[in-house]
Amino acid sequence: MSTRQETIDFILDQVAGAGEARARKMFGEYALYLDGKVVALVCDDQLYVKITELGRAFVGDRYEEGCPYPGAKPWMHISEEMFDDRAWLSELVRVTADALPLPQPKKKKRV
Predict the structure, then answer these.
(1) How far apart are the C-alpha atoms of 100 and 7, rounded to whole Å?
(2) 77, 46 in Cβ contact below 8 A?
(3) Local mean pLDDT, 10-residue blocks, the chain (111 residues)
(4) Residue 41 β-bridge partners
(5) Could you tell me the residue ranges of all domains in the chain?
(6) 10 Å Cβ neighbour count for 97?
């Protein structure tokens, strides 16, 4: 089962106040970006936020570790009732993005 567009639209609306949020389709699922950094994955309509020390401190015990796909490292699996809380989810993705480095610029391909 892949993620429905309605789920992505809902999550993007929920985190709109955190910064520049966007989603990118990848292999039938989605990566969620905040200010150019991958902060979460949405797989099978489930939200997985990248684990950072700041994010873990913010969330406390309100999450379970889970793998968004077979072979993945653990991420914070955020339950649906938690991503219904706009202010809480926005803050979680904001502190997660703040803890992550900027992505490396892509190297130009030689022709």
Answers:
(1) 24
(2) yes
(3) 90 95 92 95 96 95 90 93 91 96 81 70
(4) 31, 48
(5) 5-99
(6) 25
Give the residues across from 23 on adjacent strands: 32
Q: How far apart are the first and last CA of the chain?
A: 39
Quote the crossing angle between the two packed helices 86-99 and 5-14, to the nearest 10°. Answer: 80
Which contacts qualify for 24-32: CB closer than 8 Å, 24 or more apart?
Answer: 28/2, 28/3, 29/2, 29/3, 29/68, 29/69, 30/3, 32/93
For domain 5-99, which architecture applies? 2-Layer Sandwich (3.30)
Q: What distance in Å separates the CA atoms of residue 12 and residue 74, rounded to the nearest whole number?
A: 22
> Which amino acid makes up residue 105?
P
